[in-house]
Records
---
Amino acid sequence: MDLTFQTKKQDDGEYVYFNGEINEDAEVSLAELPKHLESTCVFNMKHVTSINSCGVRAWINFLREAEKSRNITFEECPPEIVSQINMIPNFRGKSHIRSVFASYVCENCDSQHLQLFTEGENLPTSPDEEVPEITCQKCGETMEMEELENEFFSWLDHAK
Ligand SMILES: [Zn+2]
């Protein structure tokens, strides 16, 4: 599914809910968006399903434009978006990141879980900080994060 978005004005800014795939067609979907955005925006990434290299390029161009004279915050970034943010600093540019989803697996029963980490609640402040243990809802064993914690959270260091 191609990238779509819905916007919603709230007290703390304009929320943009992205949905679908950031691919080679994203350039078209994103082209007109910066013109309409308010000065404070929150980009909700929860329903971005996948991203490819053409999509990354389109996104970076879009963000560069959108960031001009705007404060942008990313929230609810799925693991795939976090990987992009870690690999390509321009993917988030100057934007603030306030929450991310990490993927967990239970080695005992194969359950999977997406855990939200939110700034001011359970999000670490540096990549080396200990992350609270997550317990499997099914069998009660401790779940493992799919990526190395200090790598998954390495973007926290670039944030300063
Ligand atoms: Zn389990």
---
Amino acid sequence: MIYNKKIMSDLLKGKTAVITGAGRGIGQATAILFAKEGAKLLLCDLDREPLGETVSKVKSLGANVIGLTCNVTKQDDCTNVMKTAAEKLGNGSIDILANIAGITHDKVIHKMSLEDWNFILGVNLTGTFNCVFAASPYMRDAAKKEEEKSGKTQTRSIINISSTSGTTGNAGQINYAASKAGIIGLTKTVAKEWARFNVTCNAVAPGVIETRLTQTRKPGEDFGIPEEQKQMITMLQKQTGLNRDLGQPTDVAKVVLFFASDLASYVTGQVLTVAGGMIGSI
Ligand SMILES: NC(=O)c1ccc[n+]([C@@H]2O[C@H](COP(=O)([O-])OP(=O)(O)OC[C@H]3O[C@@H](n4cnc5c(N)ncnc54)[C@H](O)[C@@H]3O)[C@@H](O)[C@H]2O)c1
């Protein structure tokens, strides 16, 4: 992962951003990129140790950062995260919410237990709802107060992570695909309800990106991709995809940054696929 390369400068200067799932993969890459662009960061993750690593990396870049462990399935945790971000970093307001926490438990339909179905819907879809709901006082209501006071509101942005599984379906991922398709409905609804408050809400739909979720599946682990399937995806990407290489977390983080910045201030309710040219092929 490239930590030192500067893409642009100060795109998020002074903005307060909350990133869920910041301990690993796409969330960590987004935290590093946001820090380089001048954001103040509230980073949260279920797992304390990887979260601590990201916080250290971001601190070494000079960013103002707070790390909090949080389970996005628990409303109280989400409330605590948003309240802390607004009160300790944002003067009562949150500018950017990147809902990146997510997980897989893949099985074909006839082997999918109700427990696995509910678990994935709970983390990916309900977790995203919980975070948007908990951020509402500091995004929607904060904008309403600004409007009443001065007749103007600043732009705020929410970025959710869907998946090509959600946009096109994927064999072996009925729970995950449904959760990621649900995120698209959620995104478009927030976009419609909150456009009048200048809160944008967009989704990024990555294809296969090299992270813990797409590593070759080890025995006894619930996430990862079976070795043969991973080889097939890698071969397809090498033959026909952009860069001839699998996507990296920074490839997604750059698009999250676009939606978080003023570059996308007149864009809402959109789903942008980030799949290196592998559109509908896997
Ligand atoms: N890697 C891919 O190919 C790919 C493709 C499409 C979408 N996505 C999505 O991108 C997002 C990031 O995934 P990644 O690939 O970086 O995976 P990752 O496993 O590297 O990172 C996900 C992070 O989310 C955290 N998390 C999981 N459950 C949580 C919970 N209940 N509360 C708080 N944090 C929780 C994990 O601890 C982990 O640090 C996910 O939403 C995933 O579904 C990934």
---
Amino acid sequence: MCGVFGIYGVPEAAKLAYLGLYALQHRGQESAGIASSDMGKVYSRVAMGLVADIFSPQDLDSLKGSSALGHTRYSTTGSSTIKNAQPIVVDYSHGTMAMAHNGNLTNARQVRDFLEAHGSIFSSTTDTEVLIHLIATSEGNKLIDCIVDALSQIKGAYSLVILTKKKLIGAVDPNNIRPLSLGKKGNGWVLASETCAFDIIDAEYVRPLEPGEIVVIDKDGLKSYKPFKAQKPAKCIFEYVYFSRPDSYIWGNSVQKARKALGAQLAKEFPVKADYVVPVPDSSNSAATGYSGESKIPYEMGIIRNHYIGRTFIEPSQTIRDFGAKIKYNPVKEILKDKKLVLIDDSIVRGTTGKKLVKMLRTVGAKEVHWRISSPPITNSCFYGVDTPTRKELIAAGNSVEKIREFMGVETLGYLSPEGMVKAVGGKMDEYCMACFDGKYPVDSANIQKCISEEKNEEKC
Ligand code: SF4
């Protein structure tokens, strides 16, 4: 959970990076930062808060140059403090480097212990800084050699953007767990976690980066490297279910199309007679249109979401989450009273927000609530960069569907099957990571299983 953006060879690059981050704000709301280069110097500004609040016009004017990178952060490793905000900018023996990372490195703890034992001093608690140290201490001659050397020592998920005075580099892990797309803006190049960041600056989508690909962009154009042995892709299916914006393409596919298909598949697997299909806004709107289209039950905006607070799922503190659940949604009595509802949600994590939501629907007179979830039960934590809570906090980890239904207080509850989820999204079961649904961790599995058995969370792994 983070958004990364990079741009090369375009005037006022920092201002375009700002717009790109604005489009990627849903991927992280704790901190944001931009670094830019005018080919002679690297400038940067990072701060806690939302993109629109952090950067003043003066800040953007001071971020000079025709190349820039940006990051919007939600912490999955390292605490939510300014010292962990990105991009991380360092001066080292080969010059200046700024780095922005989306994903989670599963062996960062071990590598960090090793580096510290050999004299490295860290200034943050992020896994990203581990990578910076590995690049800085590599004995490779060229930057690309140092990057390949560093990446070959880490495991887990990364989509990375690196900026130096004269180059912009993008990289994705060999299993392609997190998305990174390449775009074109005039004669320049753009990299972003999602293509909605291209649309906002009128950049053209070129293609997704391939598993293990590194692209180096400089005055000579773009060079692609594939230095690692081909691995089976393990693309995070949750990007389609919940995380990416529906107007984005990820790994070359439309998220909106995938999400509608998830809803349609759900209607086939769990049909029910009802008056309205009502989404839990906004992340379930697309799936609800799919369910409505397939079932021919009218779609209604029966719940209104207050857009001026963060998503409860990604708010880090429990106090805020509880508060957020009450202020976030308002049911529309006019629509819901005496009606049988199919309530569509993308997932159930802890179940606490959902239970409160059902109570609200009952308060305004909903006659029946049939809850339909456009993904399978989440039974395991994510160790690759999505902040699902620990296993014991996940309602589906220790409870049957019937128990969850009872807890939620709904007439019926139906979760999409894993097969149905993949059928809707497209492709084959074995090209996706579905570990939060099935516990089969595709990368660094032994280390993760050890963490789980020691009851550590991913931050300690
Ligand atoms: S465990 Fe779940 S959220 Fe994490 S990468 Fe895999 S599919 Fe995505």
